Amino acid sequence: MELEVRHLRALCAIADAGSLHRAARRLGVSQPSLTTQLRRIENSLGAELFRRERTGCRPTPLGRSVLSRARPLVDGMSALVNDALAEAEAARPRGPGLRIGSTASRVIGGWLRRLRVAMPGTDISLRVDVSAHALLRSVEAGRLDVAFVHEVEGSPLAVPEGLEQRVLLDREPQFISLARTHPAARRRVVDLRDLAGDPWMVDPSVDGEWDGVRRMLGAAGLNPPVLHGDYLTAASLVALGEAVALCQPTSGPRDDTVIRPLRDDPLAVRLLLVSRPGADMAGVYAELEAAYREAARRSSGYHEWLLRHRSPLAHAA
User: Fold this and answer.
1) Spatial distance between the Cα atoms of 227 and 225, rounded to a whole number of angstroms
2) Which alpha helices (H) appear in the chain, and where do they start and end?
3) Are the C-beta atoms of 46 and 38 separated by less than 8 Å?
4) Which candidate, 227, 244, 252, 253, places its Cα nearest to that of 178?
5) What is the pLDDT of residue 250?
6) Residues 42, 136: Cα–Cα separation, whole Å
7) CA nearest 150: which of 208, 217, 230, 84?
8) Which among 111, 106, 110, 76 is positioned nearest to 5, based on CA atoms?
């Protein structure tokens, strides 16, 4: 088997993620598929590149040597593709367009609806990504005009130099999602200690989320079981009472779950709109702010929180 750039990219992802599971999530492939690919790469070289340990994967001396030469090749190929895409995009004849990126948010639908009304004739595209850093790199490379991202408290984003930022909300509290049958679901505000015996569901591919949860639980003196999975898996397990999970305060409850604030708001995120320098984003930001107000009003618990903290976002535009 001849090594290709995709193989080198997989090796770099495994080294950066520290485990096959997290690397597979970042690459958008299944873990068994990535494991098979790694085994084929190692067979072609005749030696192990990673030691599989209980805590993850660690490069062998040969693995470190291969990685030191693979990274410049992967970065060079990514730069080549990004530059070619940006040039092709710039050369394509088209009408006015707006390329939006966003991390997962309940606000996106309302934001898009408002933008289409406010900017008739504009070709609006959307890319949603779990990684805020990936979106920021796309804005920097010119593949996106603007990105709406969240920054987990204590895990600052590496915003590329030169990009412009507007803060939508400096501190959005993270609420907790519980099964409707959970004993704490009867309370208006939930204390972390009421969840000490519950497994917590975390998506490690979301930038900063796992670190934020770990810091929050550690500060409370808690060490509950932690499960790793995506939002869809989390919703299913929470509904069955098999786990609890942090969620956006604008999240809507289902028939089998409830959304509650945590006492003293132990974890929050900062909401940012990031754009390329010189771009006129005033209208785009205004529609985002209005969409956020609309989503907040639909969530009675969160609307009460905003009023209690005298946030201007609690009031209609």
Assistant:
1) 7
2) 5-17, 20-27, 31-45, 61-91, 108-118, 132-141, 209-219, 231-239, 282-298, 300-308
3) no
4) 244
5) 92
6) 34
7) 208
8) 76
- The DSSP string of 118-183 is HSTT-EEEEEE-S-HHHHHHHHHHTS-SEEEEEEETTS---PPTT-EEEEEEEEEEPEEEEETTSG
Residues 16-50: tens digit of each pLDDT: 889 898 888 878 778 888 999 999 999 999 999 99
Q: Which of 66, 81, 80, 55 is nearest to 12 (CA)?
A: 66
Query: Which residues lie across from 98 on neighbouring strands?
Result: 124
Tokens of residue 73, six digits? 């090749």
* Dist. CA 17–CA 56, nearest whole Å: 9
- What are 83-128's pLDDT values in tens digits? 887 777 666 655 578 999 999 899 999 999 999 999 998 999 999 9
User: How many other β-carbons are positioned within 10 Å of the β-carbon of residue 122?
Assistant: 12
What's the pTM value of the predicted model, to 2 decimals?
0.70
The residue behind tokens 């309302």 is: 110
CA distance 286 to 114: 10
Residue 95: the pLDDT is 58
What is the per-residue pLDDT across 166-204, written as a single tens digit (0 to 9) for each? 999 999 999 999 999 999 999 999 999 999 899 999 988
Contacts by residues 283-288 (CB-CB < 8 Å, ≥ 24 positions apart)? 283/118, 283/119, 284/98, 284/100, 284/115, 284/146, 285/166, 285/168, 287/111, 287/114, 287/115, 287/118, 288/107, 288/111, 288/148, 288/168
| Strand partners of residue 166 | 273
3-state secondary structure of 313: helix
Is the CB of residue 53 less than 8 Å from the CB of residue 109? no
| Residue 57 φ/ψ, nearest 5 degrees | -115, 135
Whether 169 contacts 230, CB under 8 Å: no
